[in-house]
Design a protein that fits this description.
This protein has helices at 34-46, 49-61, 97-108, 111-118, 126-132, 158-173, 176-181, 186-194, 250-254, 267-292, and strands at 64-70, 73-78, 86-91, 145-148, 261-262, 265-266. It is α+β, with helices and mostly antiparallel strands. The protein has a domain at 258-288. The protein starts with 33 loop residues before the first helix and ends with a helix. Keywords: Metal-binding, Zinc, Zinc-finger. Residues 138-168 form the SWIM-type domain.
């Protein structure tokens, strides 16, 4: 049989698929957020460029039939030129309970990281936190164990490449899938972070034995007449200031919602518009001051 561009048989057009998973990106690179681009950069560094290009074409044509992600394993089926779809698997090391306990403690120790995660954001510094614990967030050159049932000897084949690119787009939609692949899903991680503090006192149920961000020692007023109106918390505990891109209601998202409602509306839903209005006014005043200078 003649050898084709793929190195194993004469190239043939894949069987057209109805209802497959199509990449949103129609041209250029795939992956928009920093975490998905980090994943793609690793792939493009270690994988065959030609097969990655054909994999992008497969992903954009919708040749991937399904995609399932679990701890340490991604499984998919990809329709090629043969009648039966190929089975694809991509494995990485999923961390265990003890390793995740250390990661949660390290993340919770950084107030801004904790707040951003609780707000549904993925801070770029999280990669350094993982590295500091001796546990990489993203798989390195030897951290991916990939397999496809097709006879192509390339690494990776175009079927695997298509799955990897669609996986990157899934990371765009939900950064917590990166962490779920490492062994801890979104809700489990957020529950663990909430249990580390966020206003609870040490030893309080759900407090995790760690001081909360807003925990302040209770001192009688008679002993605080000189400094009663000063901040009771150390500025060092607050960590670096929030970056300008942080949402104005970031603190409300990070703290546990109080069981208070006004006319059946949760208190946080009433406070969020006020926080956003105050932030907008502050930004406007800053622009006016800069113009005056």
């Amino acid at each position: 049989m003649p050898v084709g561009r793929d190195g194993w048989f004469e190239a043939a057009r894949p069987i057209r698929v109805e209802g497959g998973i199509k990449a949103r990106s129609k041209r250029g690179s795939i992956g928009e957020r920093w975490w998905s681009r980090r994943f793609i950069d690793i792939l493009e560094h270690v994988c065959d460029a030609g097969r990655l290009t054909r994999g992008r074409a497969y992903a954009r044509r919708g040749q991937v039939l399904d995609l399932d992600l679990g701890p340490g394993l991604v499984k998919a089926r990809v329709q090629g030129s043969r009648p039966d779809p190929y089975d694809v698997s991509v494995r990485i090391m999923a961390y265990g309970a003890d390793e995740w306990a250390g990661l949660v403690e390290a993340l919770a120790a950084q107030a801004l990281h904790r707040a951003k995660l609780l707000a549904g954001e993925m801070p770029p510094e999280i990669e350094e936190v993982f590295s500091g614990c001796g546990l990489p967030l993203f798989p390195g050159e030897r951290g991916l164990d990939m397999a496809c049932s097709c006879p192509d000897w390339g690494f990776p084949c175009k079927h695997l490449s298509a799955v990897l690119y669609l996986l990157a787009e899934a990371f765009d939609d939900d950064p917590f899938l990166v962490l779920a692949w490492r062994g801890m899903g979104r809700e489990a991680l957020l529950d663990a972070l909430r249990a580390t503090g966020g206003g609870r006192t040490p030893g309080e149920p759900g407090g995790g034995g760690m001081p909360g961000l807003l925990d302040v020692a209770d001192v009688p007023f008679a002993e605080r007449t000189g400094d009663f109106y000063e901040s009771g918390g150390s500025p060092a505990r607050l960590g670096p200031p929030a970056d300008p891109g942080s949402p104005p209601d970031l603190l409300l998202r990070a703290l546990d919602p109080p069981p208070v409602k006004a006319r059946h509306i949760p208190l946080l839903d009433l406070l969020r518009p006020a926080y956003r209005t105050l932030a907008a006014q502050e930004n406007e005043e800053s622009r006016e001051n800069e113009g005056a200078e």
